[in-house]
Amino acid sequence: MEDLQLTGKLVVLASASPRRLEILTNVGLRFEVVPSWFKETLDKRLFKTPHEYAVETAKQKALEVAKRMPFKHLKTPDIVIGADTVVTVDGLILEKPVDKQDAYRMLSRLSGKEHSVFTGVAIILCHEKEDEEIDYQVIDFYEETKVKFADLSDDLLWEYINSGEPIGNWGHFTEFKPCEPMVLWTLIQRASPCLHRFIEIRDKAGGYGIQALGGMLVEYVHGDFLNVVGFPLNQFCKKLGLIFSPPGSLTHNSTQTSPQGSAVDTVPPAEPAASSPPGSPTHNGPPDSQGQNIPSASPAHNVKQEESGRGEEEVPWTLVNSLSKCSENREAEPQGINDPAAPDLTSRATMQMQNVREHETEDSKEKLCKMIELMDGFKASKVLFTASKLRVFDVLRSSKTGELQAEDVAQEIKASMKGTERLLEACVSLGLLQRTGKQYANTAMSRHFLLSDGPLSLQGYIQHCNELVWPLFTHLETAVREGTNQHEKAFGKTSNNLFQDAYYSRHEVKLRFMKAMHSIARVSGRDVATAFDLSKYKTACDLGGCTGAMAYEFAKAHPGLSVTMFDLPKVIEMSGHFRPHDADDRVSFVAGDFFKDELPKADVYILARILHDWSDEKVHILLSKIAKACSPGCAVLVSEIFLDEDRKGPSRGLLQALSMTEGRQRSASEYSLLLKSHGFTAAQVKHTHNLLDAILCVTE
Ligand SMILES: C[S@@+](CC[C@H](N)C(=O)[O-])C[C@H]1O[C@@H](n2cnc3c(N)ncnc32)[C@H](O)[C@@H]1O
Fold first, then answer.
1. 496, 517, 599, 615, best to mutate for ligand 1 pocket (most atoms within 8 Å of CB)
2. Does CATH place domain 512-699 in 3.40.50.150?
3. CA 545 to ligand 1 center in whole angstroms
């Protein structure tokens, strides 16, 4: 039996469930946790069977993460695992109770009866194609386990409900942050709903947790016990074994014959992760009987652990392989406490207490992980800044094979061998580079965002962070004590007007600032430009449009729209440097000061990253001027980082506020109120899940 490994692959669990995490961790799988944002709102009536519903939900959860990660986390996973567990009884699907009454309703329905627990699992294989589009292949299956509850008195039920377990006995909410390297710009990009966000873990389908106190309610379990806990490990391992079997040994017959159902689909890259009912192209589509859509573990994947630099605790693949080769037929023998080998009730209770302790340990490990990440965050950021500044990513790209040894890189970047090696190794650990043997190469994420001439290059913004934001943050303590911006301390110069005094006083600083704005506008511009239907408008004016990157995105997205880009004369004189090769002549440039000069006439005024920079007083001056220039039906589109309504995130916005001069960050409803006070109403808000969100309001 060949040993197969997931070495070097980025495996992601798209679930915040500590139980799933524990089950997979226990078998030695190394993975990251990125909880899915997919809302479990599929219409159950559209599904013929409960397992179809669970499988579809699992698939949508996993796809949402697979599609979000390249943009929000700046890395493409190799494998994303999604799961959804439902309990069914009397033809009803029970999910997670929302409160104690709901838990009582569910548990009393289960009392004295046998019910089924279905877990749908989706394994998404992500393949980056040559054009950097990503192919998603879906392997899904489900597992059913039958569980019988004893007759439960009301007193017992309430005692159990009041223990807190049915709706989360480690607190209803837990602060969750997966263990990942914290790179400043990763933070900036993805912190929003992922970091510092409270994620519900009261995730007990049917309102009980069999692995803890809820186990005492159970008379018998027929089938996979771990399936009831939340993840059918046995069948999952078999499927993994099939997927990563050596070429030739792959069979997909199981997708047609397995009683537990399994399907292989390819999802087109452009497809949104929206909910889709069964029968949609991605649901239970025909399996690829030739196996062509399934990647096999090629010898290249079987790199030795010491070469890969990852994974000393690999999955015991011999076991996984054996499982995968086992007959697909389920064993008819019941498992659980009817099984003579199963532990008696007392020892089960002891095991459950042990489980509680293990969960607590896991919980504190997660917290420690987060602490370490926070403590080391600045080092990671500086590694990124330094590697970018030394052009490490460009140097690797320019080599013939796309990979170089440390000494060649050292020579190219004119740095010491020892220092370069350390830098490259640190980059590998942060996912910025990959290493095979002694050869270093860019990762997909670096190719995407870190090459200086890439269409989505963040180099400009990274250098701005390095040269301007970093020195400001070294004076954070004073900034907090004094409540002021620390430009003078950091740069030996006061800045009353951020742009005139700080950014535009020297040519190279201005160019750097413009490059920074340009890179953010290139990365976020399309999502902002397509956030709303602007087809009824003919003209737009992008106030403070800087290099015009956003204006070009609007022109591209709206064929009937002409866009005037308006900015200070010092900026307009340089904006030609940033003109795209396919520049649209519907974009024109006007120089002026939006506080003092007359504004160009337009149907829509765009304010992208403008309002947060100014005091309330100046914001009102600007909005009054826009309101005056508008005729009825005109609109204002504001694009900013929108704070959550409770101002608890995203940290990207709140961290940025720490180095602000006179401005401040606002939530969508604060922007809406602000605009309303100038006669702009009927707010439409778009959270783009990119760097900037958007709000559109119209004049009455
Ligand atoms: C934070 S940048 C945003 C750039 C651009 N809107 C974007 O999203 O990429 C602010 C812009 O406002 C411009 N700006 C600042 N003060 C201005 C003024 N008084 N009149 C016109 N533009 C101004 C700056 O030159 C700069 O381009």
1. 517
2. yes
3. 6
> In percent, how much of the chain has pLDDT > 70?
77
- Separation of alpha carbons 176 and 377, rounded Å: 17
What separation in Å is there between the alpha carbon of 543 and the centre of ligand 1?
Answer: 7
471, 502 contact by CB (below 8 A): no
Residues of the chain with CATH 3.90.950.10: 11-167+196-244
Supply 374's token pair: 């926070």
| C-alpha to C-alpha distance for 8 and 310, rounded to whole angstroms | 6
* Structure-token pair, residue 385: 């800044």
Please, how many CA atoms are within 13 Å of residue 236, restricted to the half-sphere of its CB? Answer: 25
Across 262-301, the runs of DSSP E, i.e. the strands, are: 262-267
CATH of 11-167+196-244, one of 3.10.105.10, 3.90.25.10, 3.90.950.10, 3.30.70.980: 3.90.950.10
Atom of ligand 1 nearest to the CA of 518: 9
Is the pTM of the predicted complex or chain greater than 0.80?
Answer: no
What tokens appear for 607 in the block? Answer: 């304010």
Which residues, at least 6 apart from 35, have a Cβ–Cβ distance to it below 8 Å?
14, 15, 16, 65, 176, 178, 194, 199
Residues of the chain with pLDDT under 50: 1-4, 168-202, 246-259, 269-346, 348
The answer, yes or no, to whether ipTM is higher than 0.95 is yes
Tokens of 352: 């459950």
Ligand 1: which atom is nearest the Cα of residue 542? 6
Q: What are the φ and ψ backbone dihedral angles of 645, each rounded to 5 degrees?
A: -60, -30
Query: For residue 638, how many other CB atoms are within 10 A of its CB?
Result: 29
What confidence score (pLDDT) does residue 575 get? 93
Helix (H) or strand (E) holding 683: strand 680-686
- Within 69-168, residue ranges assigned H as helices are 100-110, 154-162
